[in-house]
Amino acid sequence: MKLGNFSMIALAYFPICIYCDWKERRGMWHIQHVASIRQLKDYVMTSILFPTTMFADLMFWRIWHKDLSLIAPLRIFTYLPYWAQHSLHTVSMLIMLLDLLLVPRRRPNNLKPGICLMMAFMLTYMAMCGISFLNGEVVYSVFQIFDSFKLFLLAIMVILECLFFYLVQWYIVDFVWCPQSYDGTNGKKLKAQ
């Protein structure tokens, strides 16, 4: 159940990361548009990319080991080798974890805006999948197998699990980037006072 918009968002996310880092290295960190882009980039990473990628990739591997027919028609796996699954569903998860561990961040004072952005993304994606299904386009094989009640339960599980990953990331950030020693503006540690 890869939330397919990850690829499209990541296509914009990674070049923006490079641009922001390039501007920072040139001493242009405090220019208004660079600061705004960096804030938006961090918001997208923590509210959309990290929670949905962790959910989708871990869900994929749980389903992979349980029942391949829930992922796609079985004939597709004769053309898509096992290593390709890792390039699609392991590499993206590792990249998100590395980004979380290597890019200095600080827990926001209020988590509600990030949760709202994540929910808006997820509900939009679920609505797109539902509309496609009603138009005869089956996005995921599970739509043909599950009845309405099971699909509702799946949607609740998706939301709860993404919320779990959204909240867990801030504990990781707190552990790696202790808020008392990081100023959050230029990636440098503050001097002990």
Strand tally: 0
Strand content: under 5%
End-to-end CA span: 48 Å
Q: Which consecutive residue ranges, at least 5 long each, have pLDDT under 50?
A: 186-193
**How would you sum up the major sheet?**
none
SSE string, helices as H and strands as E:
HHHHHHH
| Helix segment tally | 7
Question: Could you estimate the helical fraction of the residues in percent?
Answer: 55-70%
By helix and strand content, what is the structural category?
mainly alpha
What gyration radius follows from the Cα positions, in whole Å?
A: 19 Å
Quick check: average pLDDT? 83
Rough outline = globular
Give me the secondary-structure topology.
Blueprint lengths: L4 H21 L6 H35 L15 H8 L1 H12 L9 H23 L7 H4 L2 H29 L17
Give the structure's gist in a few sentences.
The chain has 193 residues and is an all-alpha fold. The chain contains seven helices and no strands.
Question: Care to describe what's here?
Answer:
The chain has about 190 residues and is an all-alpha fold. α1 runs antiparallel to α2, α2 packs across α5 and α2 packs across α7. The radius of gyration is 19 Å and the shape is globular.
Properties at a glance:
mainly alpha; 7 helices; globular; disordered C terminus; 193 residues
